Every structure is written in structure tokens, then in C-alpha cells.
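hiii so um. not sure if this is the right channel but i have a protein structure encoded as C-alpha cells and i wanna go backwards to a sequence. like what aa goes where. can anyone help
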């Protein structure tokens, strides 16, 4: 959500009216110049990201402004690509503005979320000690409510300093779980529903004792396969964050650097992961750097880079579940090129 760049905008009269920002975002082997990703034992393109962002905002009055944002994200893990749609609706209220407009305290209230019709992994995935292949998680969804208190001030010419504190609440849900499970010489397609009932259907004929079994379907509690759908894939998580940014401007040029620390208090899933010896990833740190140039008044083009200590933890919450958490305790990054137009 680029929260490390939060500012108490609009801070000057030039930022009145409409504001539109669009960017193309990506990360791959070519862009990973600092080798942030761990490629050991993985395919060359594992972890590639491509997508775009469009944000439209409007300043309603001197104190109030609103913004709507949409992201399209495509994440590639080996042979699989997850397509995720993300959104945010936000309102800003200027609590305190210095008479000269050089300092401002703003409250930002927002709702945001992510949705994927399916999260898939064709490689072997270990969940609570049980191995599955061809895993698919249907209708992964997360929704967050968030409040940010942001202060921005020009302490000296050409420099803008901002700081913020954040509190919020996250809810992650999914649909059915599917995966292929091997028992002896027999392979079963296992489908577990939200009520934790599972159906296992034989994939191919196999030998059970001296008999050849060609058709078999079993119904049982998903715990027989090491699954607890309600705790492995559904959870809530209050979260806290803090951070700040510095922006330097001179004539047509601008540089911004930002930092955010976020901690999540998840209910249920982390305790279950711990009971199976799986490390929990409860926090993330993000750093960002942006270079901008204004070719004309009220228009900027920019290049942006972001680095995450624990991949998309807290950034795309639906990616954190019993099947995918092992992917997320790694460094990751994003690079963006975009344009913003404002004050019209």
C-alpha cells in the first residue's frame, strides 16, 4: 500500500482539486540488482511480480479529501501465477493546519482488501506435516479497516518531514481447499470445505493389498489429512504500524525516502503453525525510495523502489496461510514507474 510514503497531503494550495496517479509495478531477475530473493532450489522466475496501480483522489474542502485506488497484481511462483485484485477507499481529514500551510496533522481512515479467485501451487506443499501437490485455495479474500494519524512539516526550505502511526484490523477468508494426497501407492484428490469436511477421490487405479482399486471416494473430517480449514486459512489480525518519510524538492526534481514497521496480532493461525514447528512471520519492515521530475506544473513522473524484509506479509494479507507462509519469510522488492497529475 506504499504506506512508508504517507504524508499529510494536500499540504499546499497546489494540491487542491483532482489528483490522479498511475504506475506500472514489477520485480524479476533483471530488476533484482541486490539479489533480494533467495533463488536456491527454485526455478529462475520464481517470485516474479508484474502489475499496475491507479489512484484517483479529490479535495472536497480545505479539510476533507477522498481517494480510491485499484491494483492488479500478478505473482509468479515457478509454474504457477496468482492473479490478485486489490482496492482501497480512503478519506483524509485535516485536524490541524498551520496558518502558512507548512505543517499539517491529518487523520486518514481507509478500507482496503485483496481478492484472488484461486491461489495455486503445482509443486509439493507441506501443510502441518502433510505433503500435498497441485494445491488450490479458492476465493482467497482479505478486508482491512485502517486508521492513520499523519504529521507533515517543512522544517527547512525544500525539505518535508512526515511521521505516522497506524492501527487496523484485518480479516482473511477462503473458499474450498483442494490438493493431491499420496497414501501408499494411491493418490487422492482431497477437497476440504469451510466446515472442515473433506472428500478424497481416487485419481488413478492403485493396489490396496492384493486388490486393484479403480474407483474410490472417502469422506472424513479434514483433520485426517492434517487440515483445519477454519484455523489454517481463516483468521483475524489486529495490527499496528509506525514510520516516516523525508522528501527533498528543488525546482523540478524531488527525492523521497520512507520507512514502515508493522506488527500483526493474528488469532488462531500462528498458534497452530507453531504447534507444527512452522515459523510464524508476525512483522514486516518496508523501506522505499522515490525519484521524481516535474516536466510541467501539476505533473510529475517518478521511479520508485521498495524493499520488504518479509515479502508481502501485511502488504497482501491473503498470501499468509498454512500453505504459503514458508514463502514469506524472505526479502522481496518492487520497482515502479509512473506519473501523477494534480491540482486540476
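sure thing!! here u go:
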Amino acid at each position: 500500500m506504499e504506506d512508508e510514503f504517507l504524508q499529510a497531503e494536500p499540504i499546499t494550495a497546489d494540491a487542491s482539486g483532482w489528483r490522479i496517479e498511475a504506475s506500472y509495478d514489477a520485480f524479476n531477475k533483471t530488476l533484482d540488482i541486490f539479489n533480494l530473493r533467495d533463488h536456491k532450489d527454485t526455478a529462475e522466475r520464481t517470485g516474479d511480480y508484474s502489475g499496475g496501480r491507479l489512484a484517483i483522489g479529490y479535495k472536497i474542502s480545505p479539510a476533507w479529501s477522498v481517494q480510491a485506488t485499484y491494483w492488479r497484481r500478478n505473482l509468479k511462483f515457478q509454474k504457477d501465477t496468482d492473479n490478485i485484485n486489490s482496492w482501497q477507499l480512503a478519506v483524509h481529514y485535516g485536524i490541524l493546519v498551520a496558518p502558512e500551510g507548512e505543517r499539517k496533522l491529518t487523520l486518514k481512515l481507509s478500507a482496503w482488501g485483496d481478492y484472488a479467485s484461486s491461489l495455486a501451487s503445482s509443486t509439493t506443499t507441506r501443510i502441518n506435516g502433510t505433503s500435498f501437490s497441485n494445491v488450490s485455495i479458492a476465493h482467497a479474500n482479505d478486508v482491512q479497516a485502517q486508521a492513520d494519524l499523519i504529521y507533515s512539516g517543512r522544517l527547512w526550505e525544500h525539505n518535508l518531514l512526515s511521521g505516522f502511526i497506524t492501527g487496523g484490523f484485518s480479516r482473511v477468508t477462503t473458499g474450498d481447499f483442494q490438493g493431491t494426497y499420496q497414501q501408499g501407492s494411491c493418490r487422492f484428490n482431497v477437497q476440504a470445505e469451510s466446515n472442515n469436511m473433506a472428500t478424497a477421490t481416487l485419481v488413478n487405479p492403485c493396489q490396496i493389498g492384493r486388490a486393484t482399486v479403480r474407483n474410490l471416494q472417502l469422506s472424513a473430517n479434514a483433520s485426517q489429512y492434517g487440515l483445519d480449514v477454519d484455523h489454517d486459512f481463516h483468521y483475524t489480525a489486529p495490527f499496528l504500524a509506525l514510520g516516516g518519510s523525508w522528501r527533498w524538492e528543488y525546482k523540478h526534481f524531488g527525492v523521497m525516502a520512507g520507512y514502515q514497521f508493522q506488527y500483526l496480532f493474528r488469532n488462531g493461525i500462528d498458534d497452530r503453525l507453531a504447534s507444527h514447528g512452522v515459523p510464524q512471520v508476525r512483522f514486516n519492515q518496508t523501506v522505499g525510495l522515490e525519484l521524481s521530475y516535474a516536466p510541467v506544473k501539476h505533473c510529475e513522473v517518478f521511479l520508485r523502489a521498495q524493499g520488504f524484509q518479509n515479502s508481502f506479509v501485511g502488504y497482501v494479507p491473503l498470501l499468509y496461510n498454512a500453505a504459503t507462509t514458508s514463502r514469506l519469510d524472505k526479502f522481496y522488492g518492487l520497482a515502479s514507474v509512473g506519473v501523477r497529475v494534480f491540482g486540476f
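oh and The two ends are 25 Å apart (CA to CA).
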